[in-house]
Inverse folding.
């Protein structure tokens, strides 16, 4: 049986529970979205944006990819950023990495995984730039530090994007944040102090 009836059933129960609490919730939300946050995070199933910051539908615009990478030639990520900043006028961009990131771990090794190796090159570049900080650490500490350094680099990439630079040049009230999530206790830490201008 390939049907996903159990998920559709859960969905109906979920929608009914929200409607019971707030009968206007979905009708109001269907008219427009007005999120204050853009979340750029990892695709990892254990790091779901809305759930870990405990926000309802309508509150967060989300882009996720393997290892929360922001690449200046990635039209997908750039389009999300442009729409979020210029149309939705979000006030905050949150780059959120997580400890134990499989994408970062793969980038630290030499094993080939196929097409994804090309994507992981962006993280390997971060490794190369930070080689002296990683030298001498055991593999667990290297992974932890690289998960952090990757977030720091991606925050820089967001800030250097034409979209964010233009927004700041035009006086937009926009902050860029770098966070990291602990898979083992569900807690977020701030890694980078909020960047608010060029
Ligand atoms: Co990850």
């Amino acid at each position: 049986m390939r049907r996903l009836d159990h998920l559709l059933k859960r969905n109906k129960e979920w929608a009914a529970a929200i409607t019971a609490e707030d009968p206007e919730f979905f009708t109001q939300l269907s008219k427009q979205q007005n999120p204050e946050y853009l979340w750029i995070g990892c695709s990892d199933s254990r790091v779901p944006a809305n759930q870990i910051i405990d926000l309802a539908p309508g509150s967060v615009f989300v882009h996720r990819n393997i290892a929360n990478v922001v690449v200046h030639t990635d039209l997908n990520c750039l389009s999300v950023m442009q729409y979020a900043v210029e149309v939705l006028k979000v006030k905050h961009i949150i780059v959120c990495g997580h400890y134990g990131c499989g994408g970062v771990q793969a980038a630290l090794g030499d094993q080939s995984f196929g097409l994804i190796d090309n994507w992981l090159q962006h993280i390997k570049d971060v490794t190369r730039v930070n080689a002296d900080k990683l030298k001498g650490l055991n593999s667990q500490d290297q992974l932890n530090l690289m998960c952090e350094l990757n977030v720091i680099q991606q925050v820089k990439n967001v800030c250097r994007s034409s979209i964010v630079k233009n927004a700041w040049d035009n006086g937009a009230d926009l902050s860029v944040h770098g966070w990291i999530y602990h898979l083992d206790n569900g807690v977020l830490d701030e890694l980078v102090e909020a960047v608010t201008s060029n």
Summary: The mean pLDDT is 97. The chain has two domains: 1-31, 33-195. The first helix runs from residue 5 to 21.
